[in-house]
Specification:
Alpha-Beta Plaits, 4 domains, Beta-Lactamase, elongated, alpha+beta, five-stranded antiparallel sheet
């Protein structure tokens, strides 16, 4: 019994010990499991904290169970505030706003992704919702920087696309086969091209394949070329493989420079073309003539230079205005261009002058044919604004090498020949000869001296009496300008007056002579109340704007009655456009108009009726042979009879003998002047002549 008691006691102890051991093991196991669980949670927590992105977890009831630091920042709250809180109670858009999205993810079992943008905070967050059995993980990634970069890239691409689509150029790439692999640019439409249509097409739709050869050889290319009517500037660079260094294609920019080319052309034309006529100007002519000299300047080469000056153009310009003159110039320029051959050069160095270069001639006959054709074309009436205008052409010709071996010499000699042609009356062409060289020098000397003659007091006025042919009573005088040169003495008027006319100096000279003559006549009329004066007025001066008014003003300023003043003009004046209104205004004021040298110029009986002429002065050439030539006597009688029939006074000029005076008196000519009475005299000598005029013999 005892033994069983001992056994039972021992067994109890063993059981107790075993139970205690088992309890300790169970406790240890529980503690170990709890530690492991805590450790797992901590490791999970550490993992979540180590993640750079924001993460928070919600359970089935949408209660937040964990929030890492990045999520705290993005949720703008702390873990202590958020954990244990229902997600729909979190007002942040990354909280309550996501409840519907979590429901979708849980229902579908798929990861739900979206990006939230917060303009106020200038922030973008990428959200990934991953459902699990009993919890849902919300993954938050701050993609603000990436979004900004993407936005900038997109904007940059949009701007680049906008630029490439609107820039006045074409941007393109090709492979080694010279076919387009990419084409874009705003110039495509203007060129009538489409970028998509050009893809994989040969490059010659835009530029020549030869332009790419240098690029494929590794060299950059810069070239300008026409594509239809448009100018393109091509900038081409080779595309080099980064690994192997081989050229795999070409990249280029083709810029539309049409407007630039047009601007350059306009600039060139401004520098080299006459604005009015479009012909080469002086600069371009010099260059063209130099080129012809280089080409034809050998021993066997021959070419010609024609210098053209228009006759009567100055009068048109002055009387009808520059608009009419410009239009007449344009029409005439076209006619000259039509008159020459295809390879001849026509230019306008200025004014009413033209130069024609005949680069190839077989002989002088070729030049004469062209010159005569130009004269015929220019002489055709020009109609401007309903007016029919008449022009002429004086042409001087210089030949290479006979008349010069330099451009300067050829132009100068052609100019000299032109002046001689003009002095012959115009509408003629003359070739240069050596005698003209001296004329050039003399003309320049006269011109330079004449420019200073007025201010130096070298000009003076001489007076020749006009007398009654029957009684020899002095009725008046003609005022004539003279040039008393300090070293050359008295220069004849036929030497310096043509130069004055050509240079325009005659206008000031005529104004001065008018002033002197009016003043002198007023002094004479103090003794001879009926004394009259006649003053020559050149065509150029008469057509000068305001000249007629100046004549009237001079007479009134000195107190000379206007009916005591006669303005003498040559027959050449009457063919100048616009002269009739000027003459009418002078006559309306009381001035008489006389035709000087009647019968030797542009004689036309029509103007005796149409123009307000009161006097004709019979040219001295008609009286030269009246003593021996019956035809001369008949002609003088006819002219006098015609004048009387038109109620015109006739003054016989150039009376040098008693026989001539008797004849003109018998023919019915009432007044006369000439050396028989007196040569032109300076004013003091003329005054003495008036005192002695009773000594003049009377025709009987």
């Amino acid at each position: 019994m005892l033994i069983w008691l001992i056994v039972l006691s021992v067994s109890g102890l063993i059981c107790t010990a075993a139970l205690a051991y088992t309890c300790r093991r169970l406790h240890h196991a529980a503690a170990s499991a709890q530690w492991l669980a805590a450790d797992a949670v901590e490791r999970r927590f550490n993992v979540l904290e180590a993640v750079a992105d924001g993460i928070y977890i919600v359970d089935d009831a949408l209660t937040i169970t964990h929030v890492n630091e990045e999520a705290e920042r993005l949720l703008r709250s702390t873990s202590a505030t958020l954990v244990g809180k229902r997600l729909d109670e979190v007002c942040d858009p990354l909280g309550s706003e996501l409840v519907p999205d979590i429901a979708i993810a849980r229902r579908t079992g798929d990861v739900f992704e979206r990006t939230c943008v917060f303009p106020a905070a200038d922030r973008s967050v990428e959200v990934r919702i991953k459902p699990a059995a009993s919890e849902t993980l919300i993954h938050l990634r701050d993609v603000t920087a990436r979004t900004r970069a993407s936005t900038r890239l997109e904007e940059s691409e949009q701007r680049l696309q906008l630029v490439t689509q609107n820039v006045n150029a074409v941007l393109w790439t090709t492979g080694r086969d010279a076919r387009f692999s990419a084409v874009t640019g705003g110039a495509l439409a203007e060129l009538g091209l489409c970028g998509t249509d050009l893809l994989d097409e040969p490059c010659d739709r835009l530029l020549s394949r030869t332009f790419l050869d240098d690029a494929f050889a590794g060299k950059p290319v810069r070239v300008e070329a026409l594509l239809g009517e448009r100018w393109l500037r091509h900038h081409v660079e080779p595309i080099v493989d980064a690994h192997y260094g081989d050229v795999s294609g070409a990249v280029g920019v083709s810029i539309d420079i049409t407007e630039l080319k047009r601007a350059e052309q306009r600039a060139w034309e401004t520098a080299n073309r006459d604005r009015l006529t479009g012909l080469p100007n002086r600069l371009s002519l010099e260059e063209s003539l130099a080129n012809v000299l280089d080409d034809q300047g050998g021993e066997d080469g021959r070419f010609a230079v024609l210098f053209i000056d228009l006759d009567r153009f100055k009068a048109i310009n002055d009387t009808l205005g520059h608009d009419v003159g410009d239009e007449a110039l344009k029409i005439t320029a076209n006619r000259i261009a039509e008159a020459v051959r295809d390879d001849d050069i026509v230019g306008r160095p200025g004014g009413d002058e033209f130069i024609v270069v005949l680069p190839r001639i077989a002989g002088v006959a070729d030049v004469d044919v062209v010159a005569q054709r130009i004269i015929r074309m220019v002489r055709r009436p020009v109609t401007v604004g309903g007016r029919e205008l008449l022009l002429g052409a004086s042409i001087g010709v210089a030949l290479y090498p006979e008349h010069g071996r330099t451009t300067r010499a050829l132009v100068s000699h052609a100019d000299a020949a032109m002046y001689r042609a003009k002095r012959r009356g115009g509408n003629v062409h003359l070739h240069f000869d050596d005698s003209m060289e001296a004329e050039i020098t003399e003309r320049l000397t006269i011109e330079n001296g004449l420019r200073l003659a007025l201010e130096r007091g070298e000009l003076c006025v001489h007076y020749q009496p006009i007398v009654d042919a029957g009684s020899a009573r002095v009725l008046g005088c003609e005022a004539l300008v003279r040039w008393q040169h300090p070293t050359r003495g008295l220069i004849p008027p036929d030497v310096f007056l043509p130069v004055a006319e050509e240079t325009g100096l005659i206008v000031d000279i005529d104004r001065w002579v008018m002033e002197q003559a009016v003043q002198a006549t007023c002094a004479i009329r103090a003794l001879l109340p009926d004394f009259q004066v006649a003053v020559n007025v050149s065509p150029r001066a008469l057509c000068e704007a305001g000249f007629g008014e100046d004549v009237v003003a001079a007479a009134r300023r000195h107190g000379l009655p206007l009916d005591a003043l006669t303005v003498e003009i040559t027959e050449k004046v009457v063919v100048e456009p616009g002269v009739v209104p000027i003459l009418n205004r002078l006559v309306a004021a009381g001035v008489r108009i006389a035709i000087d040298d009647f019968g030797v110029g542009y004689s036309s009986l029509a103007y005796l009726v149409d123009l307000p002429i009161g006097v004709i002065k019979l040219d001295r050439s008609f009286l030269r042979d009246v003593a021996i030539d019956p035809r001369s006597r008949s002609l003088v009688r006819s002219i006098v009879a015609l004048a009387k029939g038109l109620d015109l006074e006739v003054v016989a000029e150039g009376v040098e003998t008693d026989e001539q005076l008797r004849f003109v008196h018998d023919a019915g000519c009432l007044t006369a002047q000439g050396f028989f009475f007196s040569k032109p005299l300076p004013l003091p000598e003329f005054a003495r002549f008036l005192n002695e005029s009773a000594l003049i013999p009377v025709a009987s």
